[in-house]
Amino acid sequence: MKRVLETKHVSGQSPNYLLAKFQDLVDWAVNASRANSLWPMPFGTACCAIEFMATAASRYDFARFGMERQAFSPRQADVLICAGRLPFKLASVIRRIYDQMPQPKWVISMGACASTGGIFDNYAMVQGIDTIVPVDVYVPGCPPRPEGLLYGVLLLHKKIKGESLFDHVPRREEQPLDDRGLRLPPEQIDEISEPFGNSVHQFRSA
Amino acid sequence: MSKRTVEVELATPGVGPRGETLRVPLGVAQQPDLAAEHMLINIGPQHPATHGVLRLVVELDGETVVRVIPHLGYLHSGFEKLGEYRHYNQIIPLTDRTDYLSPMANNVGFALAAEQLMGIAITPRCTVLRVIACEMSRIISHMVWLGTTSIDLGAFTPFLWAFQERERIYNLQEMWTGARLTTSVTRVGGMMADVPDDFVAGLRHFTQTFPKTLSEIDRVLTRNAVWVGRTQGVGVLTAAEAINHSLSGPMLRASGVAYDVRKDKPYLDYETYDFDVVVGEHGDVYDRYLVRLEECSQSNRILQQALDRLPDGPINIADPRVILPPKSRAMNDMEAMIYHFKQVMEGVKAPVGEAYVGIENPKGELGTYLVSDGTAKPVRWRIRPPSFINLSALPHMAAGHLLSDLIAINASVDIVMGEVDR
Amino acid sequence: MNPSVDALRATFGNAIGRALESCGDTIVYVGRDALLDVMAWLRDTPGHTYDYLVDVTAVEYRDRERPLEVVYGLRSLSRRADLRVKVELDSQGDLTVDSVVPLWRGADWLEREVYDMFGITFRGHPDLRRILMWETYAEGYPLRKDFPLRGRFSRAEQVRQALAASPEAHYSLEELSIADAYEELPADMKERLRRGTRGELPDSE
Predict the structure, then answer these.
(1) B251 and B350 within one domain
(2) Could you tell me the CATH number of the domain that includes residue C36?
(3) pLDDT tens, per residue, chain C with 205 residues
């Protein structure tokens, strides 16, 4: 069915109003169900995991946003929430977990360390998980407040609702590592990982 | 006894050359002799019951644990190396993130060590405020332990109660420091800020209502048949073993060793507070639970006494070389501005020497060992990580127990991986 | 000054080096060869009974001339007394010292950590492997002063090596048997475990 729809579109015939409406309806239904019943896979490592737990617990309760069931198995999860810093020793683990998740899947990078390496600009720490897995929403903060995480989740809802099953570009496909074993070109990883802000000055001990 | 891995081939349904469905039988060609085989189970590093990114490789004989080999380092963040590149006051934000369940107590531990290194005596109000910070941390840390452990053992309700209490303390911490979790509340020679006006009343209200939650948790768990059955007699350590394994904190006290740094090597005038050191008898998981539960009410007592005696006065010492001048003076007074500039650009210099200060953190004895060569950055900042050392007794405790008991034992250690791996 | 220092001098003579006091703690330097005897004596002699090992760590100074120090924190739980024992090792020479695991089981992981971070070998340790970094970590010993803060490799190379690691490493009986019988393993396996394939230095032009 998908192929038929695409050929019609590409072959330049006059846009079929009913078909377009039908596609919108399908997208709306699929996206609404996807966005409103996200199953998070909590990849909690450090401090942010505590705020993640607080978000899940009594007061903030992210079950209100359709995240009632936490999938501790990546095979039944929709969104990977990387809460906390990610050392190099854990890099292959998060990549494996990401690869194990079925499509469609999204990633929230919670906190400064997961997004950029944070204050840990040193030998042990991955400088942003986007050098390893593609990230959809970055939540800033050290750690972000539960409200911050909830805002990130709502942004993700918004993003999901903008996706289309019938469009090539945003359709979600697996992005395996390249033959070097990297997700991005090495120069780009080096550039992303460069020290910034205050940590530029921290080359010198005493 | 043979110790080969049991390799189980998975049944993979497929389609044969003639289109018929294929079924690969389960198991290898030779039926393994199950009685003689040991099985390997990998738990973690991403597993909800390991309390972080701990990884346990478990060798099983049937359902009995023969051996546990923990693999650490999945959260190694290089704190100690970073500390060599930071001024003393710049290290304090790092201490928040080591044991992120009790950030305020870590701040206090580091500040005390730096002050001992520099020979600084803090003000009376600061001393009491730091006691308040430590005891608030103890309560929230034990609350996390209680909540997560009860989830591990199948009780969900105490988790919600515990986190409700945590939110109340978080509100107080936020009132005081502006942050819920990463507080950075101390500075060398004083505090980051004095407590706001409503803080004392808020904390007093907390100390009055917190015992009710404790007694509810006590009523739900302490005589609960499932809880008792899964914890009593599990993971026993004798007093001699606990000392030999260098355990500290509730783990050591549950084994019957009445050692508490607050009583035996007092800091922050803890000897003037009236509280009991909680000591267990059997050294099993159940006693560790009882010790931590009772420590919460002892902390509550200390908090009440600290609130009663909180003196007025400055929170920082009057030494412009250590404490930043107030903003208004730094902007208007030349001398204050110079001190401000020197502190920010050069940092506070410590004399040559070394200091070790151990404080009683919720997890155990948190030691801070600082070595200085006279510059503004330490040569070595060593954290004695209580839960790292407590965890090292896990293989010894778990051997011979059932696999399900391993979860209870691991939970009873009260680890926090940020501190174990640093 | 802690009275145990004089008692140590009377018993061990020249093996005991200088002793000093810093911030209220007594520090005593012990010769490398006598360490295990001194520790056993301190633990078991009545009147001293330092039965609790607080910490094992090491210090390297910024001054390259100064030797590395291995630091042992001892405490007597009954007498509430502390003593810090140090062993000096020449940073250019042989970084080997006796393990105190036979005396305190708690030293097991602490010594592994010192080995991991400083490259100091503990003779007689039952299972001396890296504990925080992975076993094939090739960049060196992070807490040594000649180790740069951000590591020796480029970030891309660090990410590549990290992603090339198998998350299922250690999940074999081979790994389990290392703890028991590392010394009996064939040389090539020891070498492989020590260095591994992904721990190679990147090609430099």
Answers:
(1) yes
(2) 3.30.460.80
(3) 788 888 888 888 888 888 888 888 899 999 888 899 999 999 888 888 899 999 999 999 988 888 999 999 999 988 888 899 999 998 888 889 999 998 998 898 999 999 999 989 998 888 788 888 887 788 889 998 888 888 888 888 888 888 887 777 655 544 554 445 455 656 665 665 555 443 344 443 3
- Considering the domain architecture, whether residues B47 and B165 belong to the same structural domain is answered as no
Residues in chain B: 422
Domain count, chain C: 1
- All residues at 6 or more sequence positions from A85 whose CB lies less than 8 Å from its CB, including other chains: A45, A46, A111, A113, A114, A117, A118, A120, A125, B75, B77
Which residues touch C171 (CB under 8 Å, ≥6 apart)? B40, B42, B57
Domain that holds residue B162: 79-421
Question: Residue B79: helix, strand or coil by DSSP?
Answer: helix
**In chain B, which among 224-283 make CB contacts under 8 A with chain C?**
241, 243-247, 257, 259, 264-265
CATH of domain A35-167+182-193: 3.40.50.12280
Choose the closest CB to C105 out of B38, B245, B265: B245
Q: Which residues pair with B43 in a beta bridge?
A: B56
Distance from the Cα of B311 to chain A's closest Cα (Å) equals: 33
In 3D, which of C99, C107, C122 has the Cα closest to residue C74? C107
Give the separation between CA B207 and CA B209, rounded to whole angstroms.
Answer: 6
In a domain, C203, yes or no: no
Query: Mean of the pLDDT values across residues A25-43?
Result: 88
